[in-house]
Amino acid sequence: MQHFKTLSSYLDYLELPRPEHPMLSVFNSKGEGHLPCPRESSPPITNDCYSISFKKYIAGNLNYGRTKYDFTNGALIFISPRQVLQWDKSIVFEQKGFSINFHEDFLKGTELSQQIKKYGYFSYSINEALHLSPKEEKQIESIVENIEIEYQNNQDAFSKEIIISQLDTLLKYANRFYERQFLNRKEISSDLLEQFNMHLTEYFESGKLQENGIPKIEQVANELSVSQRYLSDTLKKETGKTTTEHIHLHLIDEAKNILLQPNKSVSEVAYELGFEYPPYFSRLFKRKEGISPTEYRKNIN
């Protein structure tokens, strides 16, 4: 897989103009009509840059996953360094849109360099893009225009600080809008929770737990056609519990059933549940239930 270490090499690959700044590029088009993707298609690639883009898709194969979205005005997409990218030659955009790309080193020494890692949407797949309402779109466009003004001006001692401040504001608004998107898609969130529970139930009942061990979050997310971070955020919004906590609850429920069998030791129960180390199972059980597996068995009996 091809990897681009610098912003310039990545933009060259995309067949886009060289940036005004070695670690930052801003493209902001307000034109009319349709715009094909600069590079017609690409096999999987990675780079060391963050990307924030707003586009409206007219045609082409860009998988938005299994859901229909609330707004068709446009999609705000966030890409983090070393995230795998791929697209086909039929994608066509509206000409209106923007793309901000910056190397991860551009943020070094700033508070944003740590804060940006806390924004879950940089871990989302393309099918969990942020879909903006017209009002939200105008707010984002206003911030991008401020960034573009600083980008196009002659660089001085204040330029980087001002641009990073505007980027920070943009990301905070995006975080707010994602909160809205989760709330507005309550039905979709409930559907994902139901599918998640059904998947775990099938996994446990089919004997896969004994064959393959405790299900991995990445594996479950792939089965549900979402990213790990999106799955965890959605479950957290819906139930207050993360993906890991849900898996642990299923394990404890299953453990209770097996503990009813008096001929099996606690260690055997742990191994049957996919735990490599029985003490870890006992600690988890006690943390969730307040008593040890042995005490639970005694109480039931």
UniProtKB/TrEMBL annotation:
InterPro entries assigned: Homeodomain-like_sf, HTH_AraC, Tscrpt_reg_AraC-type_HTH
Full protein name: Helix-turn-helix transcriptional regulator
Gene Ontology molecular function terms on file: DNA-binding transcription factor activity; sequence-specific DNA binding
Domain HTH araC/xylS-type: from-to ranges: 198-299
Stored Gene3D superfamilies: Homeodomain-like
One Pfam family this sequence matches: HTH_18
Source domain of life: Bacteria
Organism this protein belongs to: Seonamhaeicola marinus
Keywords: DNA-binding, Transcription, Transcription regulation
SMART domains named among the record's database cross-references: HTH_ARAC (SM00342)
